[in-house]
Amino acid sequence: MYTIKELYSLEHSLAGDYLSQYEYPWQALSGIKEFIVSLGKTLDSSYEEVKENVWVHKSANVFESAYIGAPCIIGPETEVRHGAFIRGSALVGANCVVGNSVELKNVILFDNVQVPHYNYVGDSILGYKSHMGAGSITSNVKSDKKLVVIKTNSEQIETGLKKIGAMLGDYVEVGCNSVLNPGTIIGRCSNVYPTSCVRGVIPENSIFKNSGVVIQKD
């Protein structure tokens, strides 16, 4: 339920080959910065290096009020809207939306991902056509500052990392104003109800309800 192969269709990201080196998605987080720098230097002329280690596809629409920190790659037909704050180490795929007042840090967004309104996404990987509703955020550090543990019903996986946000599989829908706690993993085609507080591993094709009840889709 939580391996890279189970969560993501790797052909929908320029990071496909990079991610295929790992079994679990959180293992890829520490190398995102270096990967983006090396990938950017291989991009073709359809990308423009607008400043050092920031590559933007010529078909992308980046509002003047958006801030893009290095290193970063913005893919084709992607829109980065007013007041977006990309702190750096962000690979944003094709046909994505990075909306107003959205903050990204150390992330991979697959193609067709939407984070359109007031989202914080840090130390996370968002799969193909995943969507985070307005105000939903990833929490990437535990309040006690201890290392993040991935928790399932049957085991606890020590990651050795202090910062892990959320891993959203392909086609995941996160409802408005939800909080995804450190180390949350949501399987493909699952939905999270609005205003939810989510932690642990949510199986694919599931619905996570406000009460924490998880049901399988028909």
TrEMBL record:
Keywords: Acyltransferase, Transferase
GO molecular function per UniProt: acyltransferase activity; nucleotidyltransferase activity
InterPro entries: GlmU-like (IPR050065), GMPPB_C (IPR056729), Trimer_LpxA-like_sf (IPR011004)
Keyword Zinc-finger: no
Any Pfam family: GMPPB_C
UniProt KW Transferase keyword: yes
The Mannose-1-phosphate guanyltransferase C-terminal domain, residue ranges: 71-185
PANTHER family linked: N-ACETYLMURAMATE ALPHA-1-PHOSPHATE URIDYLYLTRANSFERASE (PTHR43584:SF8), NUCLEOTIDYL TRANSFERASE (PTHR43584)
Protein name in the entry: UDP-N-acetylglucosamine pyrophosphorylase
Species whose genome carries this gene: Faecalitalea cylindroides
